[in-house]
Amino acid sequence: QFASAAKKTLSKEHPCKRFVLYYHDILFDGGDVANATSATIANETKLGNFKFGKLVVFDDPMTRDSHLRSPAVARAQGFYFYDMKSDYNSWFAYTLVFNSTEREGTLNIMGADIMAAQTRDLSVVGGTGDFFMARGIATIETDTFQGAKYFRLKMDIKLYECY
Amino acid sequence: QFASAAKKTLSKEHPCKRFVLYYHDILFDGGDVANATSATIANETKLGNFKFGKLVVFDDPMTRDSHLRSPAVARAQGFYFYDMKSDYNSWFAYTLVFNSTEREGTLNIMGADIMAAQTRDLSVVGGTGDFFMARGIATIETDTFQGAKYFRLKMDIKLYECY
Amino acid sequence: QFASAAKKTLSKEHPCKRFVLYYHDILFDGGDVANATSATIANETKLGNFKFGKLVVFDDPMTRDSHLRSPAVARAQGFYFYDMKSDYNSWFAYTLVFNSTEREGTLNIMGADIMAAQTRDLSVVGGTGDFFMARGIATIETDTFQGAKYFRLKMDIKLYECY
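The joint structure predicted for all components is written out below.
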């Protein structure tokens, strides 16, 4: 009973750790290996006109501000795919990999990127190293979208379980 | 020590929230865009005769009863693939997306669909919105299987961490 | 407040359950169906020279010691893909499936396999059956790597939430 009561102290407004990072995705077009950070590994299907099934693997830089050329403070390694036939919509699973003097460790994240919504909440389902056993919410928002080539997400990482 | 003791109060028989939903998957055959809800994005390999490696992305309706045409109370967005060479077996990762007056938010789920078993337990690894920080178990059971075209799963969602 | 304090009793050095298993992956080359345990379902892309985007589905035996022919005490069912253009690096999501007189249930695991590091921590994000609602860390280490054909990982599974 007490455990139950105690648990209810978790509050959306009071994460135990919070930070914002920007995710930069430059899709490989077959030519620019030097700048590309992601690549399509399964092509879109003919189920609708919104890239249903297109699967992309990425190793994307995460920066503190929105500038692509700012120093990367982490990498986002994982994948996304499009999954709606009537509109653009996608699904993500990835790891934020930190490896600096400031932070070392990872955060594992998955969830639906409901693109019709201004902001979308994904689940932080685990962490390692400095983020040992963490859980929380990653709120993402499209910061810019430049066709198939480049898009940028703002990620507001809120941890509610910190150890 | 207390934390440890408190935690043990979690009981399989006493979820803090529970509901049953039906998952309907209609695989795209190249023709029927209007009705299809999923599509194959990587074909089966030649490792055995049970579709090993076939990867399917879905955006499937979830209904309260087993009728395909009942109103969808949520969408299941994610993927599954077959992964056994000696029998049918699969693996799922997906998000239940709720967007109604009754419930708003998501549940993130992953795990093995051990098709040889009558019921299979997947992990609910996180939640957002009305399901903020939830965890639990999703017990799935094949309700009907009509060849490659349509199958239906009963999903018994039991949450053990609610906030 | 108490919940917060209580939670901090989780210690990296004191898992509530711990065991080591070895993961054996024999990649299907098109010929040896009998011995293969995994298959490539999406080929590497031309983004760099380190198999970026190569996606493999597996159903691999897990043994107590490092011998491939030792009895499997569990199966690891899931997938990995390569995701770096400048070096080998990969990402895993899988389920450990236990089905013996000793243990029955599953553990769900995901995270980055940062191959440049000697050991890499993945997140155990959920469990079922005997591992009901478990969470923890899976520390993996490459035990042997024999080209494209066979590799073996040592997995040190440490659970910090046990019920």
